Amino acid sequence: MVKKDMKVEIKDGLNVGTVALFIQKASQFDSAIYLKYGDKKVNAKSIMGMMSLNIASGEQISVSADGKDESVALSSIEKYLCCTH
Q: How would you label 32-43 residue by residue, b for 16+ Cβ within 10 Å and e otherwise?
C-alpha cells in the first residue's frame, strides 16, 4: 500500500465534472484507491462517495492505493489533481 498527501489544484475543485474525470482516471487501475478528506474516507472509484466530499480547490487530501499497480495509480492521480486546470 502506498499513501500520499496531495493538494487539489484543479481550478473548480472536485465538482461534478472533475469528479467524473477523476473516477475515470482511478478506474483505469486494478488497485483499490481511497481518498481521505477531513474525517471521511471514500472509495475513489465511487461517484456517490466522491460527490459527498465536495472538495474545493486548494484543499489537502490523502490518497492511498493498494494493489499491483498502486505506485502508477497514485502518480497518475497526483498528476490529474495538480495539473488539470
A: bbbbbbeeeebe
Main-chain phi, psi angles of 6, to 5 degrees? -140, 160
Q: Note whether 44 and 33 are within 8 A (CB).
A: yes
Find, among 28, 37, 6, 39, the residue nearest to 72 by Cα: 28
pLDDT (average), residues 28-43: 97
| Sequence-distant (≥ 6) Cβ neighbours of residue 5 within 8 angstroms | 60, 61, 62
Q: Reduce the DSSP state of residue 28 to 3 states and report it.
A: coil
Q: Looking at residue 84, what is its pLDDT?
A: 58
